[in-house]
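Researcher: Next sequence.
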Amino acid sequence: MKYLQSTTVLERGILTSSYKKEIKNSIAREKGKSISKIKSFVFNHQTRQESQTAVILQVSLFVFALVMISI
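Model: Next structure:
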């Protein structure tokens, strides 16, 4: 315990308050980036899914029209 009393805060190692603040800020930045990536992935996936559904409907309508014309 005498060691802790005789040293300054900066000499105690990597667990200083400034280091902890830096880690917290870094985690917050990365969390924000990952949430943004998840949002963009969901939005792009949803758009792509809607596009695939539209193409399937268009192709099926075209095939139905060809069948009706050939009858």
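Model: The chain is about 85% helix and 0% strand. The CA atoms of residues 17 and 23 lie 10 Å apart.
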